[in-house]
Amino acid sequence: MSFHDTISTKSIAKSRPDIENIAIESNTKVLNLLLEKVYLEGGYDFRDYKRGTLMRRLDRRLYATGTKSYLEYIQFLDTHPEEYGRLANYLTILVSGFFRSPYTFQQMAGLVLPELVLTKVNQGEHSLRFWSTACGRGEEPYSIAILLAQFLGDKLGDFDIQIYATDINRQALREAEAGVYSRKDVESLPPGIRERYFVRNNGGYEVRTEIRQMVRFSHFDLTSTIKQPFTDLDCLFCCNILIYLQEQLQKRLLSMLYEALAIPGYLILGEAEVPTKNLREKVKCLDVKARIYKKNGEEWGII
Length: 303
Ligand SMILES: C[S@@+](CC[C@H](N)C(=O)[O-])C[C@H]1O[C@@H](n2cnc3c(N)ncnc32)[C@H](O)[C@@H]1O
Prior knowledge:
CATH class of the largest domain: Alpha Beta
Radius of gyration: 22 Å
Order of helices and strands: HHHHHHEHEHEHHEEHEEHEHEE
CATH architecture of the largest domain: 3-Layer(aba) Sandwich
Bound molecules: S-adenosylmethionine
CATH topology of the largest domain: Rossmann fold
CATH superfamily of the largest domain: Vaccinia Virus protein VP39
Largest sheet: 7 strands, mixed
Shape: globular
């Protein structure tokens, strides 16, 4: 039974709330079954994603595959295993952009970078380690790299910069690594930045080598329970991803990201996210709108 089926059952059973409840309950059970199958057989774990967005997107895959219910879609997956990847690509929403939240990057330049770089210099340290945890097609990590290039200016070469950029979507990672964007992708950038950090490439815009070589792309699933791949990070971006996850998964993820940060370390969630209470208790808030936090070294404690 699909979401649409539930809606129509709803209208049929207007006068029979007991029937409606049974329909919704059974729909939820089949959806859980489907998500369990996608996890066990497809290797993608969407079990703790928020149901609303998930169901809206799933319904579009049902439409695209000509299946009329979650049950039919489950059978379709058995005969078309390539659908797992398509579904995963479809459920992981790729909307992004260079300097997507200008305010967040402005605050990063004003609040985080001066303090971070000064601390490093005082410690006689020259490494800067960043992680863009859901990097999509690369716009976010390249924006971080461009900001660092602008901020450090002719001192850029004095630092050993690593921007790790991970995502679950392998196709997006391939595009990110290629670093070539359409005119539309870069049109919102100030012309100065476009000219300085991109080169024209077959009608598109390719990120210049000096920026690309700061970024390392790899695959990582944020729902994974294996240990985080990076530690001792100076600054971490986790933007526009928590909103799609249920609270329990948000908590687990944030605790993992907190562990990955050095002390001091900065966590940037951006304007769209709402941090969980247990995170707020552990970190100092530097900017409430851009949701920029500084790790103050407390143990994470029980969630
Ligand atoms: C809306 S985009 C946000 C991209 C970028 N962070 C930004 O703020 O513009 C969400 C990204 O999260 C990625 N994503 C979704 N689920 C994920 C998971 N379990 N692990 C890693 N990345 C995931 C998607 O592939 C997509 O690139």
